[in-house]
């Protein structure tokens, strides 16, 4: 789980992405968009200073392509 200290892992499914760009808009340090508009991850592990922005991006993603997973080496 993601905490205020960071440590969660960002997951992005380009097969599900619709190119809305909400993730890149609210968390530009973590997400970008390819030329075709699909999500591109800039980092896999959520930096502590980006936790709130990544949670906002997950909430705003209209297709559900952006998710959070367990930290690297985590129990789930």
SSE topology sketch:
Layout: E1 9-12, H1 22-26, E2 31-33, E3 39-41, H2 51-60, E4 66-69
Antiparallel strand pairs: 1-4, 2-3
What does this protein structure show overall?
This protein is α+β, with helices and mostly antiparallel strands and 76 residues long. It has one domain: Alpha-Beta Plaits (2-Layer Sandwich), CATH 3.30.70.20. The protein contains two helices and four strands. The strands form two sheets. The protein has a two-stranded antiparallel sheet with strand order 1-4. Strands 2-3 form a two-stranded antiparallel ribbon. Strand 2 and strand 3 form a beta hairpin. The model has no long low-confidence stretch (mean pLDDT 88).
How would you summarize this macromolecular structure in one to three sentences?
This protein is of the alpha+beta class and 76 residues long.
């Amino acid at each position: 789980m993601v905490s205020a200290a960071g440590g969660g892992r960002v997951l992005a499914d380009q097969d599900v992405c619709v190119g809305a760009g909400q993730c890149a808009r609210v968390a530009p340090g973590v997400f970008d968009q390819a030329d075709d508009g699909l999500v591109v991850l800039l980092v896999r592990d959520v930096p502590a200073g980006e936790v709130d922005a990544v949670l906002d991006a997950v909430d705003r993603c209209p297709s559900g392509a952006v998710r959070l997973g367990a930290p690297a080496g985590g129990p789930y």
